[in-house]
TrEMBL record:
This protein's record includes keyword Transferase: no
Organism listed in the record: Anaerostipes caccae (strain DSM 14662 / CCUG 47493 / JCM 13470 / NCIMB 13811 / L1-92)
InterPro entries with a match to the protein in the record: SBP, Sperm_putr-bd
Subcellular location: Periplasm
Alphabetized UniProt keyword annotations: Periplasm, Signal, Transport
GO cellular component, one term: periplasmic space
Any GO BP annotation: polyamine transport
Binding residue positions for spermidine: 46, 95, 180-183
Signal peptide range: 1-21
Main location: periplasm
UniProt-recorded Gene Ontology molecular function terms: polyamine binding
Name used for this protein in its record: ABC transporter, solute-binding protein
Gene3D superfamilies: Periplasmic binding protein-like II (3.40.190.10)
Amino acid sequence: MRKTKVTVLLLLMALTVSLLAGCGGKEEEKTKDGYAKKLYLYNWTEYIPQSVMDGFEKEYGIKVVESTFTSNEEMLAKLTAGGTGQYDMTIASNYVIDAMKEQDLIEPIQMDQVKNVKYLDKSTLNQPFDKNNEYTIPYMTSFTVLCGNKKKLKELGVDIKSFNDLTNPKLKNNIVLVDDIREIAAMALKVKGYSSSTTKEDEIMSTLPWLKKLAKNVKVYDADAPKSVMISNDVAVGLMYSMDAAMAIEENKDLDVIYTKEPAQKCLDNFVIIKGAKHAKEARLFIDYVLRPENYKKVLDEYYGVCINNGTKKLLDDHYLKNPGANVDRKELKRAEYIDDVKDAASIYDDLYTKLKTE
């Protein structure tokens, strides 16, 4: 009797599995080379041109389905809330890689299968956050700069030599800031002589009075397109990523990059593969495609990032080279400080930002 029940139970289980498999839909379509026809990318806004994704689809028959985020924190929140099953790959900054590994959000990337890594500047490889590049392949250096409207600043009688000059009352309602607390707090911390990646609560919170003073001059916090108000002459100066500054300079010749006595901020953005990705093979193929020098040039032609591809450096033209937001000052880039992982202190930075915006 017991054996009969077990047999019946096994049959029912098999039937259930069969039905569930049927509910999953038909088997995924493949290209003639055996690749899946879709790759799911979770990416920063305006970071890989559609032309590059279209070229990849044309060559391999794989469509890149892109969803976007505006900060590392937004990306992490989505993935930790159960979003890993929606994507195959993402682009993450150096200071969140440890957290992604600790939370089991990413898997080994198998860099040996991406031959075009050979073009990457060696200074970007084997970083402390991922020795031997087990989980990451560098994509681009993100460099944060001040972009200033020379004409408006002259009219206002403001000369910016330090981040502290941004609190000048003459700049009231004349500043745009990238909506990222780590970038904003870094300015205040440097003015006070602290590390921009400090984890000490008293140092972090001590910046609040300075930030509130700065806030009186801020017209808008914008994570998506801080360049827009610079292009339209609505503000005199902005803290933004160098690629946004470059695109703004391309549109408005009154704009230029401003370097202060305090060093700027930088981070290294990296390709990573999401844990359990269904299309990891296709993700590696896409990374390899993007790193081809001629394709990486297409990225820089549209988004003006800091070039870390030695093969592409030989292809760059005046369109890129003569733009100070794109071809950034290498001495300043070297002087810049990396934004580092602050681990549990991230919540203190979040509290700082809440106090800044609500009190």
